[in-house]
Design brief:
Largest sheet: 6 strands, mixed
Order of helices and strands: EEEEEEEEEE
Number of helices: 0
Strand order of the largest sheet: 2-10-9-4-5-6
Amino acid sequence: QLVESGGGLVQPGGSLRLSCAASGFTFRYVAMKWYRQAPGKEREWVASIASTGGATSYADSVKGRFTISRDNDKNTVYLQMNSLKPDDTAVYYCTDFASWGQGTQVTVSL
């Protein structure tokens, strides 16, 4: 099971930190990913992190602004989002591809 939290309403240029708490599987052995889906658009990949946290990758649209990290002792993956833009407005999901969370809404607006 994956449960996201930390979404909300933020002004352009602001920051949010999303969390995804995992249970029911051996989290420390699994690579994790964040995806997002904006209204009327397809779900898109945002960031990935290897099981050990040693390797990360990002979509070009968020590179330099977002940081993915994980705490294997807490079975949690994070997405730190800085310099947020209105185009970042979406429902954000974490996944290990075997399962998906319910998503957390991020709205960037004045």
